[in-house]
Model the fold of this input.
Amino acid sequence: MQQNDALIASLQPHQVVQVDPEFVRLKPEVAMELYSHNAAASGDSTAILKSDMPPFELAAAINGLASERVALGGELAGTMKGCDYDAAFPVLVRNLIKPYPLVSWFILAALAGAVISSLASMLNSASTIATMDLYAKFSGEKSPQKLVKVGRIFVVIFVILAAIVAPLLNNFTSIFAFIQEFQGFISPGILAVFILGFFSPRTPRYFGAVGIGINIVAYGALKSFLGPWIAKHGWWYADQIAFLDRMAICFFIVLLAGLILTVIRPMREPVSMPVNDQIELKDSKGAKFAGVIVLIATVALYVIFW
Done:
């Protein structure tokens, strides 16, 4: 809110601002004033503001006026944010760890290690997919030495592409929220396909591609037009469907589609998993007990913080 107040204080009559729905929900009075300001800066005397307009609609109206003004050569002063998610961790470290400077170095080392390991694993995975599933498949190359060289080239290409795309992420409210939200296009479908493949031996093999495709279409529809339409008609408990809720809905959609496909066109012969007699598998009572504790703790956290 300090950043928002500073932006409002420096706002000039010829400038316009954008807002996110969370800001409109937290500061509806200020949002209405910004709507009037953007309308005046855009020269739109026909703009009508409804007092009962939902936050996401009011945000869309404010941003629409700002976009029109910018398209005509106007100046965008900035974006009013309801929550600055990217600043949460730095503020936490500054306020809680500041009295203990040595501890802050450990936190910095842990953060750097987490970032580097995550980046390395993603680059390695992307390079492996591009090399083995695309290059080796279509070129017919089988030499391990050449495939390793091609994989290294792909790593360099992906790093360059990531460096080009990274500055564009500043246009979003939160980089981490953007990454988490767009994982919803893939992760619910993968989970549903995995569960059916694990527990349903007669589910057709092609459901792997079909399930992921259904998830992409369903998540895109909920994000673009179907979700806002449902919220607008009061069929949801909030002004819009949050991305975690969209992921849950898509998961059950893909799961239901897989069950229907299994009933309609099951495999003639169920899949039989190979048995490895060379490895001795024994139950671990300690692991089972720890697993039950983790499940109970997870359910308890959901119940407490829901």
Q: What stands out?
A: The chain is about 65% helix and 5% strand. The CA atoms of residues 115 and 222 lie 31 Å apart. The mean pLDDT is 84.
